[in-house]
Specification:
The complex is a heterodimer of chains A (448) and B (524). With 448 residues, chain A is of the alpha/beta class. Chain A contains 14 helices and 13 strands. Chain B is an alpha/beta fold. The chains are: A alpha/beta (448), B alpha/beta (524). At the A-B interface, helix 1, helix 2, helix 3, helix 4 and helix 5 of A face helix 3, helix 4, helix 5, helix 6 and helix 7 of B.
Amino acid sequence: MRYLPLNVEDRQAMLAAIGVSSIDDLYTDVPARGRIDGLLDLPRRASEMEVERILGRMAAKNVAASQVPFFVGAGAYKHHIPASVDHLIQRSEFLTSYTPYQPEISQGTLQYLFEFQTQVALLTGMEVANASMYDGSTGCGEAVLMAERVTRRDKAVLSGGLHPQYRAVVENLSHFGGSAVVNLPCGVDDVHELSSRIDDNTACVVVQTPNVFGEIIDLAPIAEAAHAKGALLVAVVTEVVSLGALKPPGEMGADIVVAEGQSLGVGLNFGGPYLGLFATREKFLRQMPGRLCGETVDAAGRRGFVLTLSTREQHIRREKATSNICTNSGLCCLAFTIHLALLGDVGLRRLAALNHHNACLLADALAEVKGVEVLTSRFFNEFTIRTPRPGAEVVAGLAERGVLGGVPASRLVPQEAALADRIIVAATEVNTDEDRAAYKAALREVLA
Amino acid sequence: MMNREGRPTTPASGGAAAADQITTFTGNRGLEINEPLLFEIGGPEKCGVDIDLPDQPLNRLGGLARKNAIGLAGLSEPEAMRHYVRLSRRNYAIDLGIYPLGSCTMKHNPRLNERMARLPGFGDIHPLQPESTVQGALELIDTLAHWLKTMTGMPAVALSPKAGAHGELCGMMAIRAALDARGEKRSVVLVPESAHGTNPATATYLGYSVQSVPARADGTVDPEEVKRRLSPEVAAIMLTNPNTCGLFERDVIAIADAVHEAGAFFYCDGANFNAIVGKARPGDLGVDAMHINLHKTFSTPHGGGGPGAGPVVLSAALAPFAPLPFVVHGENGFRLVETESDPSAGQAFGRMTAFHGQMGMFVRALSYMMSHGSDGLRRASEDAVLNANYVKAGLEDLMSLPFGKRPTMHEVLFDDSFLKGTGVTTLDFAKAMIDEGFHPMTVYFPLVVHGAMLIEPTESESRASLDQFIATLRKLVEAAKSGDTARFTGAPYLTPVGRLDETRAARQPVLRWRKPLPQLDAAE
């Protein structure tokens, strides 16, 4: 086996050194009932070439985003990733290192985590950020639990514009954690509707901007309404590139910001691994879940970085920890921070402007198709259209014509019959004039 | 010896001592180069990506456009390459040497797996594109599920959990859901003292109170202790097997039987599954739910702390409650069940994460499994166990074993009593290993052993590498015992930074860079 360095003689000599005659003498504690002799039902080992062939065949059955005009979003976005990002994250010293428990030989990881935390705090307009969560949706769940710890209340009001699958994650956690969730009807994130649901037991209001249908939400009045009743505002951003164009949630009064960082550096990956960004105000620092990296010095006064405030974490506090999380998305953080360092302030703002411009062009193009209505008035790179036929059928028809044209709302909220004619459409910098023309033409055909 | 320029290639006597005394003008030491923060070298106008904006960009942001600069620093591409390559050189990694972190499992990461995960058909597909366009991806998920079920002897698997601890949460949620379906409100979870901190944290997260179970003198859980704590209030036991002391819980069947008799469930923390693949099946031992850290057992890279992946295998009793989404065989190929309203959703308890789990990790893990195959997976476990016992045999006369001479599984636990009276602490000892070019073992865990030192060599280490590791540790132990404490108390000496002040970091947290205040004018 190509990954195993021991040979037959090694094994014999080592067993002799240990003082046993066979490997099974080391498994004597395993009860006979649980023993098996290999995994006969599974295939035998495959060479590198064979694995490439088998997995290559499976991969070839899928339609990759880069092969077709691609407009699918709703929480994950196709962006161009500079070649140097993937090269750098595959450096052995990054790829094959562990959680930086020994800081003196982990300064590479620790320094980029410190840089990452700084970038996330700046982007979101918040004071502090952690070293990442699994993804945006689980980060959203953790934000609600954190708000409940901070306020000592146990109810969350979820706006109807929150991604339905994020809502499902929060509902699941709340259900098992014994707290309550008030869900506004899908699509409703009006400030009056939200405020009317806030009471003395409300820990937080959770609002996504742009929302799942692409509509940009002004968080300021919602923050005011939440704060007036002692609740926190949790702002959710599923498209982090939007922060290059839009007022940051921190400026609009958010207390906790969670975002999906997949758009920068990480790639689509069929849903994971992704990258949860998590930022808050300094005064809530000790209630924040997840890993934190901090600056310090060594005995000679040299600057260095360490994992810190671990007394909040499960390996110290066990039953009293802020969460059970024991890891972060280290390598995804690295990809994100490199991509953002390459963009810089100017680059991110240009990238965001280009995304928005392309979305505007696409909206105008699709609106010209007979029977199609663009429903979103202010949007970033994603908007919703209404078509005269069920969205799922239209998207399937587009796929048959080689265009991946968006996410039918019915995929996310099958129970909302009124939304069955909606399609959520995303445009990014990768889309060309030809892509838009192909979409328009295919949509005309499907609806003809 | 002279080189081509006629200079001597061996330093004059005293050269090594002289090297210690040289202070450089830059603070760098040859190839050891200090690297400032991104924000100290980058600039707001610098950019390593070419993006051309249209002459008249459209704007439908509805008055909520960002007005101010963000404050980010940018780098050109060569600056970025140099910055991150320099940073990478300040990291230890498994590709540099043995990484014997017990219970963390750092083994070789085959690059084939990276290549497979980057195939556009896996890496560049969207979780919400039509099912007809991702049949190969769904097939891969289905195949991975088959391998995991076969290896564990369990009938079902939930693939969406994003990490080991997330898998624990998923497994315990399935247990809660099953109890709720029976109409039972149980409030206690039993957790052995040696458990990972994630276990009690997970149980508490779900509203359970945690009752700990002490280990007997040999380091394993006594079924009689479990029985004493069982009652109609107990929902589950969370047992790690092999446990964090490197021992197989030899009474696991008696424990499982007792737990089931009390109407409770058996959650197994499968962090150490890598010791028994192809040797034993958790399903045969009475396990109801167990998470599998794909990054540990199946070698997906840790990447400085993640991403992980924590699929959970489930017994027949828990299978109906598996969370959304999951893959089923439909009329036209594979199909995703994504919502409760789907007729195939069963009693699914909800959703752990927005999409379908860590696809990138699934590809890597399956690539690893196929590469080993049925024969190689067993061999890998055996070699991991062999290597750990070899390290034990090589050190047991000098270091101290808290639980005597039982065979150990894939990791071996020492304690620090061999350092008693030397003035060298466990941490000093670990830091001195760094100067010798080794990553230290896990120290201070498990908590049940004072001054624990947990070594996990894994199957990736050759005999020569183990011999060198053992010889070095022997020299260090002898140095400590002979009073040569100077090499320990200030260690590490040879790293880019010395031992860091962690107390200061926690007391005065500095968690981000801030722009320095402008210097006051010297004339004022």
